[in-house]
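step 4 of 6: structure.
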Amino acid sequence: MTDISKPNAGEYAPYAVKYMDLLPEDTDILQVLEQSLQTVQDLIRSIPVDKLASPFAEGEWTVKEILSHNIDTERVFCYRALRFARNDPAELFPVDQDLYVQYSGVNARPIEEIMEEYESIRGATLTLFRSFDAAALLRAGKVGGNPTTVRALVWFLAGHERHHLNSIKENYLPKI
Amino acid sequence: MPAPRRPKNGEFPAYAAPYINRLPADADPSKILADNLEKVSELILSIPVEKLDNPFAPGEWTVKEILIHIMDQERVYVYRALRFARRDATELTAMDHEAYVRNSNIRQREINSILEEYRSIRQATLSFFRSLKSDDLDCSGKIGGEVFTVRGILWLAAAHERHHLTSIQQNYLDAR
């Protein structure tokens, strides 16, 4: 399988640097995504079910909303990666993440079903990035005006997920 | 998710009608997609491996190319349905499916890895459609200037796969 090395600055939007910074240079990025699934499951199991739909502070997302946000982000980033990897020249559009959470209805869904979806999308993410050869991983396109490579998208996903898991640990667990 | 009724005219463009009209009136597209998750491996593995890279007629796709086409379309369909279900008003761009097949490295891939990807995408598709609320199915948006509802996309996903699997059956198996 192709080695997916860390993207350089310029391969992702400037705001994404905070996610890239969470991952060391020599990270095996697909292994991180494979293993973090277990981390998410353990973390969620450590939180009482009745706390999963409460925000830790006024105006913040609930844990279920964070999960839905991660799921939607992963679907969107895989789509972008597919388009760029297939040399599709269309410029793609950013998403309004608050709108996505607002209409997800996720607080009313059972946590088991949400985690099943989380697991299923992770499976489809891993098969997508494993399917790319070295040339496809370096192909690029634009999202909301920012040049983005295929490999940067998978690094983003891993860093973005880690960021949200850290936030659950720091902001939600102390209040339980 | 409630059993979805058949989409009416106006929920999908004219080019999708020949696919959708071939599904029975009382079809359950989620069930068709779930059933084919089981059946597709059996169908494909019944074809001798050396035939998987041969088009059945000059200028036609090979079996592997048909499979990557179904997979790419399925990832794209679900992405579009997600955007519409989240009330995202962005008009989406069509894709050149011939270019996607050409720019995939599908000939170099082992059939088992292709089928593994196929199954992983299907799991992610089914978990997405299961997550929808009944009013999400009526949400609509535009793709390349043509209107689709989420319901129309779900039916097309099931009908499109059926069309191609039937063609594999007829051209590679029945014709032997």
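step 5 of 6: annotate
 - The longest strand of chain A covers residues 140-143.
 - The mean pLDDT of chain A is 96.
step 6 of 6: archive
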